[in-house]
Amino acid sequence: MTGENQSPQTGGTIEQYDAVIIGAGVSGMYALHHLREMGLSVRVYDGATDVGGTWWYNRYPGARVDGPGSPFYGYTFSDELMKEWDWAETQSKQSDVLEYLEYVADRFDLRRDIQFETWVEDARYDETTQRWTVETSTGVRASSQYLICAVGALSTANMPDIPGIHDFAGETYHTGRWPHEPISFEGKRVAVIGTGSSGIQSIPEIAKEAAHVTVLQRTAQYSVPAGNRPIQPDEMTDARDNWESFRTQMNVHPGGFPFETHERMALDDTPEQRRERYEALWQRGGFRFFLDGYNDVAMSEEANASLADFIRDKIRGIVRDPETADKLMPEFFVMTKRPILDNGYFETFNRDNVTLVDLREDPIECFTATSVRTQKGEHPIDVLVLATGFDAISGSMLRLNPKGRGGVSLEERWSDRFHNYLGLTIGGFPNLFMIHGPGSPGVFYNMPLGAERQMEWIGNCMRYLSDQGMGAVEPTNQSEEAWDAEVSGIANATLFPRTDSWWTGANIPGKPRYFSAYLGGSLYYHRIADVAAKNYEGFLLEQAHRAGDVEAS
Fold it and tell me: pLDDT tens digits for 229-268?
């Protein structure tokens, strides 16, 4: 259904669609393509000027794919797309990923159904019509039966609240909201706050150009060499010739990647065997350092310590100044914060123009117009780079803050916990679906492939409702509680919840603190398929309201 109706409240025009999608990144682009293939009328709204989502915003120096990368960080739904696109490097840089997504938008004519530079400012569910109404920053209003939230797990920037930070008169940039025009650091004194993924990627690049870089480290991190290199033509040929086999491997692999799984346990090997294995993986580089290591590292403190000690020894061997090396020593369980790949991060601290300030022992007191003052001194700066991450996983949904049954907002519903079922749906918010939301594998899975698989489940659910004459679907309280227990039970069998991280919400003051991602890997897709096979067990299905019923009410 598509068209326009008059709003009885305002008299204004409301555009009518089967589905509205919020977000034109990797997930939203596929959602649009998939629903159009189902024959539905769809409209996408996005605040950016073009497609790309995270890859449109994150243009900071050194930004790259930091998981097992190209050619497998991309869509799998089109054999033709795989044959047509050539990737340049194993860890693709931001501009290459964005160029790929722009090509996908062209290839499948996606932009004709996307309205850019448009923020959804309100989304409300009408129980009488069983439809969502969205209001946008451009004044456009739309109504749809389904609301698909492809708002991104890493899209709501975390802005630190530090005394005087708004008094700083120099240039300020957040890595998650980087300007589109080139930024010059030449001859400038730069301070970088944060040593997560974006900080570790950007600091080496900034240091090559800046007069001086002061790294304001809140938490010392584990990082391993990215091992980035050009993709050889024969590798692309092999990927294309064996695409079906690779795709099958990706669908069964716990992280969604085309690698064989293994049963190796660190505690089954001698210390010498472990270090030999770690060394071989370090020399190769890449995310397979973690995937091809040992299966018990995320569960056993002793196994974890063997890997943590190895990386700490590597840091000591790379960083020439022992005092600086000591400040760079991580103190948490390895892998329980987001694993990071780098291109010369630790080597950067051997440069004469780089200073490390450990904020645990020398905290920031305030910013001035021209400097940052710490407890032990003052650092004059011209540029401030905030590599302070995101209000991850739930933050973008809470920024949207839709209103469900009875006008209850998501902020109210999620005040104590991110209640959901299957990481896809929320009780009290009928016909609303999330991609990469809390309770799903999200950032622990190959995200383009995960978006495809979640959206296919959502599309099948929508088709089932139509076939059954149903107008709305939402989970029961009992199914949400059971899912929460399942997600937490899997996480609590690991070391992950024992570390403060953005995975646990610890980086955002006042945020419910617990581990909200599904760590069961590919088991997740078996679980949601089983729910569908049992006629959407755990859901309340509501009969479609007839036009006469709506008019009478």
Answer: 999 999 999 999 999 999 999 999 999 999 888 899 999 9
Q: What percent of the chain has pLDDT over 90?
A: 89
**Tell me, which fold does domain 3-51+110-156+392-552 have in CATH?**
FAD/NAD(P)-binding domain (3.50.50)
CA 443 to chain centroid: 5
Q: Tokens for 512?
A: 């419910």
Return the domain boundaries, the chain. Answer: 3-51+110-156+392-552, 158-221+340-389
* Global pTM value: 0.95
Burial class (CB in 10 A: 0-12, 13-18, 19+), 73: buried
Predicted confidence band of residue 1 (pLDDT cuts 50, 70, 90):
low
Decide if domain 158-221+340-389 falls under CATH 3.40.190.150: no
Over residues 475-494, mean pLDDT? 97
User: Is the Cα dihedral 257, 263, 266, 272 positive or negative?
Assistant: negative
**Helix H segments across 73-209?**
79-84, 94-107, 197-207
Evaluate whether 3-51+110-156+392-552 and 158-221+340-389 have a shared fold.
yes
In angstroms, the Cα distances linking 232 to 71, 73, 93, 204, 245 are 11, 16, 16, 26, 20
Beta bridge pairs of residue 64: 93
